[in-house]
């Protein structure tokens, strides 16, 4: 007999849910590691969404008009892996057997780019919800930009699973508040309200009225849904489609549902059930099949291949009709979702760098950044800017920017978003926008507040999202606001994040080139920009081209014979301190020390260069001194233990910028003293 015939009294939805449960149990047990409780508790919720609502094509996970699904409570990753495997994605059963093993496609938490069908990397709780807000925002803006009467080529929804932990994290407040304000009506969040976290029953530390909280944000809230009743969840999902605002569906569940001894306890949250409890659970569920075995009849219930192929084929036909009526818009839409730059992009770059060089302005690099944005926006309609309530200070807006906002008609289009005082939320929302594709997001705040954004920056680097983080007021040079606002350790700490490019330019030309590199890069970038004016530096065309390498020779030591035997020193500087290094050259030469100035706007880009380039810029055996208005230890990798570093290893003070640079000995004289010391020590 077939499994379905043997279980004639068991509804198909129950068989589908139990298949998810057992795959999760078996994979966690095989790995001796994982979180089985959430997959067991959310199985029916997953059936309702994936079987009755989710628009997706397992044979093309990148189909532009697919619904997006995010597992924000990513510790329950086996729920998602089971869904992807059963519905037809390229995730064979052997990969589920390799759960949490080296180089497998089923890592401990879902990772975009590793597992087909995973939309974003989750695990740090709450960020998946914020990514979902970004994806829903991108969908809404693309729909406003590209849809035409009778032609809806952008029409998909974003679904997010969250747990108590996601809602405890403060980022959930930031992201949900913004989503409600913008009336992102195609965003639906399903809350696994099981009352359990790792430490036990959450009422001891999480007594919030979460439904009321989301209602206050302007969300449509569905309370007290039975999360183990597929029809009840289905009904709530249907209601979300007509809500006209984002929806939170509160599903009451039992963590570890089906486990006779551990259901409803924190013991099932983050540890395998154990062999005895697995056997008891199999009996309790009436599941007679060996580990990892799913009967074909149940697989057929789950298989979404035919439905997905039909949905995409229908969309493709509608898109071709759109292309016939709107060929220019269709081509632009395809370019945008593919993430390619316009054909005329290099011409725009040449114009930007030429204009920055010809203008020869001595201005703050935050102002130089605004000028670059203004120029780039003419060539890059995908630019979607914003700031965390510091637009007038970050200078992230530009002439012609249109504010994104909502009114009684819902979200209105635009290309500039006021994120409010939500640095962490902004950064995670930007990651969601980038992952969705169609826009190139950038957002600004003060560099010292990058601490608030830190984990979203790390996630951007981990996922290689094309997000640009603009951080102004980059040092004690901001002046009177004092140490709470003066970045000291921040540049060094950001440079330590793998795959994150960090730029600290010294003038208009370096700022323009930093923007170009950030736009062209398939990964995240940070631009660290000054509040105070910085002097323009003259360069040759070859030097301008070399900026993209991260470090280059800005002023070389004299080549005449009088200095052939002189002591030599390399001065390495970034940002506002490049001017100090240039000022030090003449006094050093007068003292018999030939000085080379190396501007190093991006240590991360420089580190990727060939050994030949790095040695040409920083010749071995020549003593080096670095100067930067930040912590000194970072620079030892470039100057060595015998080199010198002029910097600041304490917090700042409240005073005008000039007084602060003198007080902390970030001066030409301090650089001269250190250069003489290292040059004489090695000569």
From TrEMBL:
Annotated ranges, domain Transketolase-like pyrimidine-binding: 363-536
Q: Cofactor note, please?
A: Binds 1 Mg(2+) ion per subunit. Can also utilize other divalent metal cations, such as Ca(2+), Mn(2+) and Co(2+). Binds 1 thiamine pyrophosphate per subunit. During the reaction, the substrate forms a covalent intermediate with the cofactor.
GO CC entries: cytosol
Mind telling me which residues the site (Important for catalytic activity) is annotated on? 35, 269
Catalysed conversion reaction: D-sedoheptulose 7-phosphate + D-glyceraldehyde 3-phosphate = aldehydo-D-ribose 5-phosphate + D-xylulose 5-phosphate
Q: Name one GO biological process term.
A: pentose-phosphate shunt, non-oxidative branch
Give the family per the record: Belongs to the transketolase family.
This protein is called Transketolase
Recorded source organism is Paraburkholderia panacisoli
As recorded in Swiss-Prot or TrEMBL, the protein's gene is named tkt
